[in-house]
Amino acid sequence: MDLYTDDYFMGEALHQAQRAAAAGEIPVGAVVVCKQRIIARGYNQTELLHDVTAHAEIIAITAAAEYLGAKYLQDCTLYVTLEPCVMCAGAIYWAQLGRVVYGASDDKRGFGRLGKQVLHPKTALMSGIRAEESRQLLLNFFRRLRT
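Now predict its structure.
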């Protein structure tokens, strides 16, 4: 029996997204879970690091690979508050993540525009977990930028 649920782990990703927002970054957060344990966390740091590739997913995948001492993450689940972009979907593919769970959809930049085949064929996908909270974080962030 699983001690924690997708809802719980997405809540942890939302905490990372809140950290991003507090740092003036686009509020996207991610955690990588292996055997019901969070092994890596990440949030957008593109402004801080002056690096367009410093997305939450990339940071979390890199930390998870370092933690496990392995480049493949077949036994891991990535929880991310926003549908990954094509760049992050490529990293998810190469890391061979076993499962990806995301909150809000991204109709403009999400990998879904190209289809699920962008991910590794063995990667299971789930969307919509705490999507409204994820979407509201993004809306509030961009609303504050415009005022």
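The first strand starts at residue 29 and ends at 34.
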